[in-house]
């Protein structure tokens, strides 16, 4: 992987998207089901197959359709390691809450760094 300007590794968005769609199908339906994905999201079966094969460029409209099917936000489909039982949330909007969570994250990082 190539480092980015912010020092983070680049992510294969197509792989993340498919992994998250798969985990959502398994969570909601108990298994992978491309036909149900296509019909439920109102996309073509070929699009569902290309998503699985990670060979397609995905637009916002397609993300919106898939997100609506699983009752999540489109951006959540692109978060690595999506857990359907604990969906990611955006950071709180107030400065006080943001500062509080930053302190918590700093403390957690310090604990991890110190091996505790």
What do these coordinates show?
The protein has about 120 residues and is mostly helical. The protein has two domains: about 1-85, 434 Repressor (Amino-terminal Domain) (Orthogonal Bundle); about 90-115. About 55% of the residues lie in helices and about 0% in strands. It has five helices and no strands. Helix 2 crosses helix 3. Mean pLDDT is about 90; it is low at about 1-5.
Task: Offer a concise description of the structure.
This protein is mostly helical and 116 residues long. The protein contains 5 helices and no strands.
Annotate the secondary structure layout.
Layout: H1 13-29, H2 34-41, H3 45-53, H4 60-70, H5 95-113
Work out the count of structural domains.
2
The level-1 CATH class of the largest domain: Mainly Alpha
Q: What's the β-strand tally?
A: 0
- Helix fraction bin: 55-70%
Give the class from helix and strand content and strand pairing: mainly alpha
> Average pLDDT, to the nearest integer?
88
* Alpha plus pi helix count: 5
Name of the CATH architecture of the largest domain:
Orthogonal Bundle
Provide the succession of SSEs: HHHHH
CATH superfamily grouping of the largest domain: lambda repressor-like DNA-binding domains
Characterize the largest beta sheet: strand count, sense, and whether it forms a barrel. none
List segments where confidence is low: pLDDT < 50 over at least 5 consecutive residues.
Answer: 1-5
CATH topology of the largest domain: 434 Repressor (Amino-terminal Domain)
Terminal-residue CA separation: 29 Å
Compute the gyration radius: what is it?
Answer: 17 Å
Using the alpha-carbon principal axes, give the shape.
Answer: elongated
State which percent range the strand residues make up: under 5%
